[in-house]
Specification:
This protein is an alpha/beta fold. It is 38% helix and 14% strand. It is elongated, with a radius of gyration of 23 Å.
């Protein structure tokens, strides 16, 4: 499965009042492995950023003056996001801004471009009800190193979100098993007698038992509830 972790920085908090995207950062993951095929653009928003927004992301109006406008980047952005499962922290915010930009150009909304959109904030609230679930709070809770995050940046935040998501969902794919075909479709083997085979029993070594215990401890840290301690 192709997944894309996405984050934006904006001129302010309200796309309804004309605020625009100034930075977009995307990190690609395929089958739970980061590919390095990332996307990152600074964007000329054709308006000034609010002072409060600049204090958060540190991107000045002067820096953005010579950057391409969203209309010039829309084809590359839409092509990159096409048919991907897009993962965003506080998805309604970023999706709202992206859809406003796409709507100005007469393009389809993000929901039509992506195969699915996942909100990790909603996911975290379900796993950790009543706790702080900002990206920084999750990094601390899940032991994701965010020491380089002094200001918000779209690409850095997308990279952190990828690490957070992997930790939030750790252990899920370990519960999945490849489908085993039944012997009913194999001619001549429906009634094969396996009793003649003596299968060896291989005991785990001490180091393997220790490694297994460490994996279980990591799953217990990140999971909402586990049943094996019972």
């Amino acid at each position: 499965m192709r997944q894309v972790f996405l984050d934006t920085e904006t001129t302010g908090l309200s796309h309804e009042n004309g605020d625009r995207i100034i930075e977009i950062g995307c990190v690609e993951m395929f089958n739970r492995r980061l590919t390095g095929n990332n996307l990152h653009f600074y964007i000329n928003p054709e308006r000034d950023s609010h002072e409060d927004a600049i204090r958060i992301h540190g991107i000045t109006n002067e820096f953005l003056q010579d950057k391409p406008k969203f209309a010039q980047l829309s084809d590359a952005i839409c092509s990159y996001l096409q048919d991907a499962e897009i993962i965003i922290h506080n998805a309604p915010f970023d999706v709202g801004f992206l859809n406003a930009e796409l709507r100005r150009l007469g393009l389809a909304p993000l929901e039509k471009i992506a195969s699915n959109i996942i909100d990790t904030l909603a996911m975290a609230k379900e796993i950790y009800p009543g706790k702080r679930n900002s990206l920084d709070a999750l990094c601390t809770r899940l032991e994701v190193d965010n020491s380089g995050r002094t200001l918000h940046g779209a690409l850095l935040d997308a990279e952190l979100l990828a690490d957070v998501y992997i930790n939030l969902t750790r252990g899920q794919d370990a519960l999945l098993m490849d489908e085993v075909p039944t012997t009913s479709g194999l001619k001549g083997h429906n009634n094969f007698d396996f009793s003649a085979f003596q299968l060896p029993i291989i005991q785990a070594t001490d180091s393997e038992n220790l490694a297994h215990t460490k994996v279980l401890e990591e799953i217990m840290k990140s999971a909402k509830k586990v049943v094996w301690p019972r």
